[in-house]
Specification:
Layout (H helix, E strand, L loop, with lengths): L1 H14 L14 H4 L7 H13 L16 H13 L3 H13 L16 E2 L4 E2 L6 H18 L2 H17 L1 E4 L4 E3 L10 H18 L2 H16 L20 H18 L5 H14 L17 E2 H13 L7 H16 L9 E2 L4 E2 L4 H19 L5
Antiparallel strand pairs: 1-2, 3-4, 5-6, 6-7
Helix pairs in contact: 1-14, 4-5, 4-6, 4-14, 5-6, 6-7, 6-8, 7-8, 8-9, 8-10, 10-11, 10-12, 12-13, 12-14, 13-14
Length: about 375
């Protein structure tokens, strides 16, 4: 069942050449861009949220083009590499080389659209930590399969971008990396994923600066972990929520950092949070809850990250493989269209069936690729 579902998704994505619309691409509308409302941060935020929440895809009418998203291409590449499809992945990595951001030290990537958050505005192509981290990890995946020196050098230069442009706080013991250059929001999944990348590159380069900075960053977020609970998304007043997939990011990042550095000093905390994650964020049938205290909206990103988290932490809890399969089958049975793509979200009142290339397809492609590579052929 999972192999067949992946094959349908694979064919769908290849037919589109891995290009498509994004959940947050509303500001790519040439209609809106040429209106006076575009100059207002308030109206930019409203416009993005309208397209994000609407179950009807109005992007053609609003003249929003499909595009290649660097983070999405990174996820597709990592999925292909996990399945041993190295040549296909190499083509996507070559495309990524042409999509790099400019104007900053090191190597970095941003999104193929401008976006407005509550706290700041980011123009098209301005690099951010998350896009850069997932692309860098794809290059590391490629390096581990091929020993390509160009790939490991690219990943190393991504670390340069993070260290030289994204440090928000540093003292003798801790450090916090930011999301976007010049913006001050402290977000734990960004900080921990950056630390994990630095740790992973350290594993191959033995650069002492990488382990020093990454250890400080992990320490910062571990000190922010409430006893018996989960990390809040961030530290701003409107960032104090706890959600499913960002918790998954943090768990995977913490495990990856400890594996890369050999420093298993937070294993007890990892095991405790992961146990709570399995108990609190999932319904009996594998359906994801979005928040720790409420289910809706039911989001495909949570399901995809759930599969990834259970695969990556399979040695931590004996139920991990069973849980990964349960989540994957729920997503396939509930959220996959007959044409192969996955729906975005289910609310109490309707299902948003728009096929977002990064948020839905790239994440499910990556999740199912990992499942097949690690557990394929062992479905219960």
């Amino acid at each position: 069942m999972i192999q067949e579902a992946f094959s349908r998704l694979d064919n769908y994505c290849k037919h589109l050449n891995y290009s498509g619309w994004d959940l947050f691409d509303g500001l790519n509308s040439s209609l809106f861009r040429h209106s006076p409302f575009y100059r207002s941060a308030f109206f930019r935020l409203i416009w993005i949220q309208f397209f994000k929440r609407s179950p009807i895809n109005l992007r053609r009418i609003a003249l929003i083009p499909k595009g290649l998203n660097p983070k999405g291409l990174g996820l597709f590449s990592s999925g292909l590499i996990a399945l041993g499809r190295i040549k296909e992945a190499e083509l996507l990595l070559s495309q990524l080389s042409y999509l790099r951001s400019s104007g900053y030290s090191g190597i970095s990537w941003g999104y193929n659209f401008p976006w407005q958050a509550k706290a700041f505005y980011v123009p098209t192509g301005k690099p951010n930590a998350i896009a850069t981290i997932f692309v860098a990890n794809a290059f590391l995946d490629f390096f581990e399969k091929t020993s390509s020196q160009d790939a490991i050098e690219t990943a190393r230069k991504c670390c340069d971008f993070i260290i030289e442009n994204l440090v928000l706080h540093e003292d003798k013991e801790t450090l916090c990396f930011g999301y976007v250059p010049g913006e001050g929001a402290r977000v734990h999944n960004v900080n921990m994923l950056a630390a994990a990348l630095l740790g992973r590159v350290y594993r191959y380069t033995k650069d002492p600066m990488l382990i020093e900075k990454s250890r400080k960053a992990i320490t910062y977020s571990m000190q922010a972990l409430p006893a018996g609970s989960f990390w809040p998304y961030g530290e701003l007043p409107h960032h104090c929520f706890i959600d499913n997939f960002h918790t998954g990011f943090n768990l995977v990042a913490l495990k990856a950092w400890m594996d890369a550095t050999g420093e298993y000093i937070w294993m007890n905390q990892l095991e405790s949070v992961y146990q709570n994650y399995l108990e609190i964020f999932w319904l009996e049938n594998g359906c994801p809850k979005y928040y720790d205290n409420k289910a809706y909206p039911i989001d495909i990103h949570c399901a995809a990250q759930g599969v990834v988290t259970c695969i990556k932490l399979s040695g931590i809890h004996p139920e991990s493989p069973v849980m990964a399969e349960r989540i994957a089958k729920w997503a396939i049975n509930t959220m996959q269209d007959k044409n192969g793509f996955f729906y975005y979200q289910e609310t109490r009142f309707y299902t948003n069936k728009i096929a977002y290339i990064r948020w839905s397809q790239a994440w499910m492609f990556y999740a199912l690729s990992l499942y097949i590579a690690k557990l394929g052929g062992n479905e219960q």
